[in-house]
Amino acid sequence: MKTDFLVIGSGIAGLTYALKTAQHFPDKTVTVITKTKSDETNTKYAQGGIAGVMNVDADSFSKHIDDTLIAGDGLCNHHIVDIVVKEGVDRINELIQWGANFDREPDGDYKLGKEGGHSEHRILHHKDVTGKEMERTLLEAIKKCPNIHLISHCFVLDLITQHHLGYLVTKSTPDIECYGVYVLNLQTNQIQKIVSRITMLASGGNGQVYRTTTNPTIATGDGVAMVYRAKGRIENMEFIQFHPTALYEPAIQGHSFLITEAVRGDGGILRNQKGEAFMEKYDERKDLAPRDIVARAIDHEMKINGTEFVYLDCRHMDADKFREHFPNIHQKCLSIGIDFSKDMIPVAPAAHYSCGGVKTDEWGHTSIRHLFASGECASTGLHGANRLASNSLLEAMVFAHRSYQASIREIDNIGFREDVPDWNAAGTTAPKEMILITQSLKELKLLMSDYVGIVRNNERLSRANRRLDLLHEETEQLYHHTEVSPQLCELRNMITVAYLIVKSAELRKESRGLHFNTDFPHRNQLLQNTIL
After folding, report:
1. What's the rounded Cα separation, in Å, for the pair 196 and 191?
2. Among 37-51, 265-279, 431-445, which stretch is predicted with the lowest mean pLDDT?
3. Is residue 114 within 8 Å of 121, Cβ to Cβ?
4. What is residue 60's DSSP assignment?
């Protein structure tokens, strides 16, 4: 199969890029592939909203820039922050023109929320399902473009580079090129090659490497792992953001229900098991401190009190407004017997967002030619050591647009590679026991949660590394001798991502942002990015 533009992933980054390229080039083909349903993405589960300077009377670009830089703890790329904040408003207005419905006040102005780390009210939202509304808008727009082919249930195995043509490719190879991908069609169980002129990687996050995460089951870090195998540059993988307030359900592991930060923005108060409001002990901003501070505070309270959760108290809030603004959260809590107006909501931190990823420049280029990256799988320089709440959807749209602009300039100088070989599955057999995969996955999630969580130390990281070495060795042996399956490939990708997180954490001899190492509790002024 040949396509001019290949998009891996159907979240806000991938769909924005696909829509823009298809509209600009009606005579060229744009193919979007996703490994499950087209709307099953991290975008869909984004509750809080999208940050933008929409009220210029009370807010300003400089305030949004400062808030982002403060949250990023000295590692943000100032130039990139400037670009995203200033160009982001145009991208939001564009989405509104495509049909996105954000909540409005009775007078027609947008309802603007406030979240941790923000100095002003600037979060646009659609109740507590903002990401779902944005996803709906883009999918509706995509349907109107006849040159976009959306293929679901298609699992990407590897990026095709010179390596597959028989050339030696290393990290120091200066001109690595992407010619497309090998995919496993989950409906036919056949491995196919898709050759493209330009590829956009928008494959999402990697929260599933942890035992508890707000991410859906598809968030297995496939894009980052593929680029690393292709010898592309990865950076800052140690900065995994744990959302402070995921709903605590003791019987549930894997995908946790998110209690958006906007609840605290509207007045929700964190309390420990004794009913004490504890955030004032940790930060003068109390419950609206940046996420890294709030997550560590909750983690500390749980450890000193020997509990598995704390409480989010919403009993004092206006009940009618809560139900209007957070209907999804209200219904979920009721389903497990919690009435927010009478009961406090049990919450605990859960893996939520990866601030690092595939290193890109200001136009979305990766270190591999003809390969762009946008969204959570990319490391643009915006987030630094800690993402400011509701900046992720903004970043995805801005860099999808910038990658589209760069693609316009470059597409005419890129041809199809005609000599790409078929996938070689010689010597492989059907797996004998699935438990070899499922048990390794359990071990991986357990070791990452226990050793590489919110608080780390050298001994824990060393143990994690040794266990990952064994998991890697066993899984690679399985991969090379059995037929590929999504379960095996996801495990392989997650082991790679886990290794990158641990290796980056070992390289960072300091505590900064989302990375807190008790053996290096202070910040190192000289240490910048960790690039692998």
Report:
1. 16
2. 37-51
3. yes
4. -
- Joined tokens for residue 312: 């989010």
Strands (E), 248-343: 254-255, 269-271, 310-313
Indicate the helix (H) or strand (E) that contains 140: helix 130-142
Contact 405, 94 (CB under 8 A): no
Six-digit token pair at 87? 């160009």
Tell me the two tokens of residue 183: 């995919």
Residue 291's pLDDT is 83
Beta bridge partners of 482: 429
Residue corresponding to tokens 């004032």: 280
Q: For the residues of 444-494, what is the DSSP string, one character each?
A: HHHHHHHHSSSEE-HHHHHHHHHHHHHHHHHHHHHHHHB---HHHHHHHHH
Both tokens of residue 516?
Answer: 């807190």
Domain containing 344 equals: 247-350
Kindly name the residue from 122, 211, 271, 291 that is annotated as catalytic. Answer: 291
- List, in order, residues 6 or more apart from 158 with CB less than 8 Å away: 164, 181, 182, 226, 229, 230
Question: Residue 344's domain is classified under what CATH number?
Answer: 3.90.700.10
Residue count of the chain: 532
Nearest CA-CA partner of 278 in 307, 245, 312, 250: 312
Active site residue 211: no
Q: Residues 258-298: pLDDT tens digits?
A: 898 889 988 999 999 999 999 999 999 999 888 889 999 99
pLDDT band at 219, cuts 50/70/90?
A: very high
Nearest to 227, CA basis, from 502, 470, 497: 497
**Residues 464 and 393 both lie in one domain:** no
> Does 27 lie in the same domain as 170?
yes
Same domain, 376 and 389: yes
**Amino acid identity at 58:** A
Cα 118–chain centre separation: 20
Which residues are paired to 378 by β-bridges? 358
- Per-residue tokens: 432: 């004998």
